Amino acid sequence: MALRLTVQVQLVLQAFLHDPASELYGLELSEETGLQPGTAYPILLRLEHEGWVTSRWEDINPRAEKRPARRYYRLTANGAAQASARLAGASRPSGTALRRLAEGGGVA
Amino acid sequence: MMPAVDPREDARKRRAGVVAVMTSITVVAATIVSNSRYRDWVWVLWLVSFTIIIAFTTISMQQVGPPYRRGRGGDSRRRRRGRDGEVGDVNGHVRGEAGPAGPAPYQWRALLMASRLMPGSAGRRWLAEAESLLSEIAPARRGAAARSYLRSAPRLTTMMWVREVLHAVARSRRPG
């Protein structure tokens, strides 16, 4: 089934496309998109299942760092190409849509 | 230098103290009842007392909180299934270690329960990611973030189980 390009999905893809080679972790992505983490996670899962992004656990010693490991996400080459093409064809989320999203609790 | 106080040891001592007091009260009450005209009912007193003591001990040993804030006696299922065969939980935390503040205990309990409704590995990953994010997010936003995880959990659980069933069906249809 083709990925539905909702406003939230568009925000996540735009965050990745700022620098397609960079890796983002949940909190970073949430801050960049303004989406609540609980909203961003299912989107990341769907993108991963579609093969648009890959993920990996950060390789750290949680005891030494005094924090849990992060899960990093990165666009795949195919994902970057698909995302660019789909976003170019999609209508940009309007200010009203983003405001509604913020008022509905979708935005942190 | 002062020796570090182990919170697990402290909790164990307090628990032992409460159990000792409850047992003493039971013995005194049983002695009184045995010497009264209700002596035939003393077994009821023992039964009720031991039920209360066992329930108290079991519940107080189930400490709630993210693994990096939890002492011994936490969630053994998650510990056993830690990633990469490490001793610790899915994030490699070792029991009882100090760490950053995470979600409130009641939110942690809800997240834990929600993760257990999801298919095994997917649930563990969801919980580990939630734990990771909630430990780093600004305290003022932590509650809202935890609630957002919990709000999305039912839909996510359904999505994961549907995917799991579809995979199982596809596997069973594969020849050989």
What key attributes describe this structure?
heterodimer, A: 108 residues, mainly alpha, Arc Repressor Mutant, subunit A, 3-stranded antiparallel beta sheet, 55% helix, 11% strand, globular, B: 176 residues, 2 domains, 6 helices, elongated
Summarize the entry for a quick read.
Chain A has helices at residues 7-18, 26-33, 37-49, 62-65, 77-89, 95-103, and strands at residues 24-25, 53-57, 71-75.
Task: Write up this protein.
The complex is a heterodimer of chains A (108) and B (176). With 108 residues, chain A is mainly alpha-helical. Chain A is 55% helix and 11% strand. Chain B is mainly alpha-helical and 176 residues long. Chain B has 2 domains: 7-61; 67-173, no CATH class. Chain B is elongated. Chain B has helices spanning 7-34, 42-61, 76-80, 105-117, 120-136, 139-173. The A-B interface holds A 25-27, 30, 36-39, 41-42, 45, 49, 57, 61-63, 66-71, 105, 108 and B 68, 83, 88, 91-94, 97-100, 125-126, 128-133, 135-137, 141, 144-145, 147-153, 155-156, 159, 163.
Q: For the largest interface in this structure, which chains are involved and how many residues does each contribute?
A: A-B, 24 and 36 residues
> How far apart are the first and last residues' alpha carbons of chain B, in Å?
67 Å
The proportion of strand residues of chain B reads under 5%
Report the major sheet of chain B: none
Topology:
The complex is a heterodimer of chains A (108) and B (176).
Chain A: H1 7-18, E1 24-25, H2 26-33, H3 37-49, E2 53-57, H4 62-65, E3 71-75, H5 77-89, H6 95-103
Chain B: H1 7-34, H2 42-61, H3 76-80, H4 105-117, H5 120-136, H6 139-173
